[in-house]
User: Fold this.
Amino acid sequence: MYRLCTAAYMLIAACAAMAAGQVPSRPHRMYRELPLFWEREFKDALSHRDAYCQQINVSVSDEYYGLGEEAIRQQVSEELGQHYHENNVWFHFFTGVITAYNLKLERQENLIDSYAGASFNRALELCETAPGACWLLYFEFSRVGLETWAEQALQNLEKHFISSGAQAAPIISRQLLWESDYHAAHADVPNALDKLFWAAQFDRNLATAPLKEALLQLPQSLLSISQSFHYYYLRLRDSWQVQLGVLKKLFSFLHTFIAMLIVAFFVTVLLRHLVRMLHPAAERYPSLVNLKIRTALAGLLFVCLLPLGILPFLWIAAALVWHYLAKSERIIVGLGCAALIAAPLKTRIDDHLYELTRADASLSLFNKVQDAGYYPELEQLVHFHIEQNPDDYLAYICAASLSLKNKDVQSAKSYISRAEILKPDDPIVMLTHGNILYFSNELKAASDYFEQCLERFPELEASFFNPCLYYFGEMKFMEGIDLMEQAAELNPVKISSFLKKNDKYYEGNWPRLRHFLQPDYKPSIFWNNIALKMAPKWNTTNLHWKKHFLGLGVIPYAAISGVLLLAMIFFSGSGRRLKQFSCKVCGIPICRTCRQQDLCPQCFEALGDLSEGPLLKHFVRKASAFRRKYAAFAPQIITMLFPGMGSFFEKGVLKPLAFLQICVTALVYSLHILVHATKGDSSGILTAPQAWKISAVLLIYSLAYLLIGIRNIIRNGRTLI
Assistant:
């Protein structure tokens, strides 16, 4: 026994060493430490505000800067007079705030816009080239309750945003989403909807905004739910970024659901036949030891297999229990083993999704450049990536796009020419090259690239929209209008939003960068031409899989597990179970060797010393009590833990209704895990209060079966007594 345990632990240590292997390297620090778009501007604006507040003796930590007291307002007014700065945003802001407070005290709020408006307008004008100060002004206006001016600050910030060529600013959208959730938690639905609307304006990837908006308005929004789902469908259809995010969550949910079903069936089968399975091992101990103690020791030895990992443990358990299973149970366990053979597919899919989304992947870099405007840290990262990957055409597209956003046309031409050499048939290369030529007023050459892309990739709305202004400039209005209508048919939401924002902020004087759409891959092109070609090498999958199964790669694992399953099926014969017996008194499983007149050794010895009469009846009743209690209580306990499994545990037959209930239980538990994992994610559909409500509803399902199980146990206990 000592040698067996020593060998087992040596095997575990060896397997752990083999599974360790090499650890995949982390992304370079430049990828991990890249600041968010506008993060530096916001920090600078915060420093300037704090410095000016210190000059005029205003406490930023106070909710309203302490201006509710007349003495402090008088003191701040004097300080403002001493620190007059015509071109300082915060001078004009605090001047207007003090005027607004005085008017509020005089109950003349209707005059705030007239008397304080000049100062506020001047503060906003000074932010035309300072997005950080504009964003901070939004917070300060919100702090003092001037929501109209806070809205104006957001509009000015959006003008900065679209002028920079950006399409997503997480530093803004995350804060607005948090504010939306905060207002929703305090039952302030109008403000929550307003913040949610603005969060969607600053993040093109926030496709769940209409669904979240519909949920916030329930039950009044029942009529608009279909419209919200339609908008979400359009965004999902047209965005590979949204599809990738949905795929990751859906795959995680399905994996959790299937894993729960497999583990539940394996555990139930093990509990049903555990004592019979352990009996051969228990017989190896000295016969002087009580059979129940020997069975417990064998069970402890079986549990010691768990450090090998969940997959090896399940395979060993399936092999040990197989001979004791009925035909219906063997079918279920066999299907579970077949699913375990396919388990490396999960690792393969995880590796592929990681390859598409890892920080140092060219696709992630491309997505960052598409979302953000120009800022030096991102440009440095792109140049570093090019140095590390000189043949990555996506990196050159990123460099060209950044140079264009920085109005460096010559650098943009150089980078896109390199990308064209590496990948001349890529639609983004063609469209980006056309955009650069259009920006530099080489209109005819730009039109040639657009027409070339339109011929080969007619599913891209940018191929139709980008040449429109060229045709308008050439007085070919019919051709331009026709192309714009075709672009709108492909993506009506995107084209409509683009045109409305241009008209709103620039009227007829559109900036050059807003004359064309930024190109992006359609989902069909992305999945066929980009995603499939970025599949990781099998060496990477093998490396990760070794951590799951004794340091073995995918192919050895599949071969060994397949042979093991075939051997189990082959040696099962015609489906007859191994001959087994139970003690007629206590019900404990026994084998042919230890069987003595249909009794286990302990009961046979005890009955031999007893004579007929009340004492014998008392012993038989006491000895068989555990068997009757186990048969009465075990199915109820299994049902309490996993509703539906109790019926399978009791009869070993899976009826359709029981299987349906088991699937519902796995679905409920998986949803609970998903909701719990995403309740802190403000970019999801659910707000925190909604997530807690759904968790509570899902918990009711488990609590109901828990109470029913307790009731049945009490009822059966009374019957047994």
